[in-house]
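Lab notes, practical 5.
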Amino acid sequence: MVKKERKLAALRRRYAQARRHLAPTGWLLQGTITERTIRREDRERPGKHRDYGPYYQWTWKREGKTVTVNLTPRQAQAYREAIANHQALEKTLQQMRRLSRKILEATLPGVKKRRSTPRSAPA
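Output from the prediction step:
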């Protein structure tokens, strides 16, 4: 019984630690930042290419549709940080869900299982 209590206490400590990670969470965004460079043939020098960019785009889903927004370099950096915050938050929430399930299963009585009885052969 002591081993079970220690294990439960460890689960509760891990859960409390995960909760502390939620407090300092900054801005949150879903999506992806893409850096694009456009390469075009140089009109003044045939056979040579000229690069334009980089251009930054933020893409995410809204009501099942993909939305794309062009960003400045400064916006792209801030949006990247917000996306990273969201990913870290999701990871923490997954951990908290897993720990919650384990703690609840360990602390609350479940449905009594029926005794398994061998089935009799059909007549």
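Observations recorded by the TA: The radius of gyration is 27 Å. The beta strands are 32-41, 49-62, 65-71.
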